[in-house]
Amino acid sequence: MEDKKTCDTCGDSSCSAKKQKKDESTEDYAERRKLQSTLCRIREKIVILSGKGGVGKSTVAVNLATALALNGLKVGLLDVDIHGPSVPTMLGLEKETLKGGPGGLFPVELGGLKIISLGFLLQNPDDAVIWRGPMKMGVIKQFLTDVQWGDLDYLIVDAPPGTGDEPLSICQLIQPLDGAIIVTTPQKIAAIDVRKAISFCRRLTVPVLGVIENMSGFACPKCGEVTQILPAGGGRKIADDMNVKYLGAIPMDPAIAQSGDSGKAFVYYFSTTTTGEIMQDIIHQIIDDLDKTKKLNS
Asked: Is 0.90 surpassed by the pTM of this model?
């Protein structure tokens, strides 16, 4: 069993979990220390957000996590879309269930990737999860504190659309978050809602790593040429207007839908395609920017 560092064995005297806060109960303090002992073992924590549903957040999260793991890094993928957990399907893990031990739950593992999703706990994939905010907050906290994540280089969090319970819980529980990636599609109607996600991050002092415009044009499966079939540029305009980085545009590619439905990570199986190379370029930008930020702050 992996030796787990705890707050009692940590030598960081500046850590906020070292001391009990004024008016903080002993139980709350113990929970906070337990959460912090998990987070301290994770080097980078990134959340994938959007103010709009159906823009491809899970696609970005799954492929980002897979690409990082393929580079030999220790990666966790946390699916906090309580009402529509799609990560198990996208990785071909629908039949997997979570197992537990004395130290908590074990993530489902795929290669170098550790995955947690509520989808692993549903007896029937067609079951609807009908929960209010406190229950969502509780299960997200449990996924962070009662899961044996171990030492990770990256934790990628796939959040549901909007700025409600689940994204708020993640931003409040994971302190600090190293950044958020904002996903949009080109249309103006999506861009209007996605701007709210950036404002949400700023209200909660979460750094915005950049904006990805998904479904931007159509990539021909035969020649790779990208043809614009929807008005393009929504993602770049959001980035320019909101003064954040524009990470790039991922075209619509039939292979992305096919890979997601068949449980195969696109960035691995289609890495040499035009869309695969675009996706890898975006991922490398994210990694490089995080490394530069760490060096500046060190």
From this structure: yes
Residue whose structure tokens are 């931007």: 216
Tens digit of pLDDT for each residue in 66-108?
999 999 999 999 999 999 999 999 999 999 999 988 888 999 9
In whole angstroms, give the CA distance from residue 61 to residue 51.
15
Q: Which segments of 212-265 does DSSP mark as H helices, in order?
A: 234-242, 254-262
Cα-trace Rg, the chain = 19
CATH number at residue 134: 3.40.50.300
User: How many angstroms separate the CA atoms of 94 and 73, rounded?
Assistant: 24
Domain that includes residue 147, residue range: 42-293
Domain presence at residue 19: no
Query: Is 24 inside a domain boundary?
Result: no
Domain membership of residue 275 (yes or no) is: yes
Digit-coded pLDDT (tens) for 3-20: 455 666 665 656 667 777
Above 70 in pLDDT, residue 1? no
Structural domain total, the chain: 1
Cα–Cα dist 245/235, whole Å: 10
Is residue 88 a part of any domain in this protein?
yes
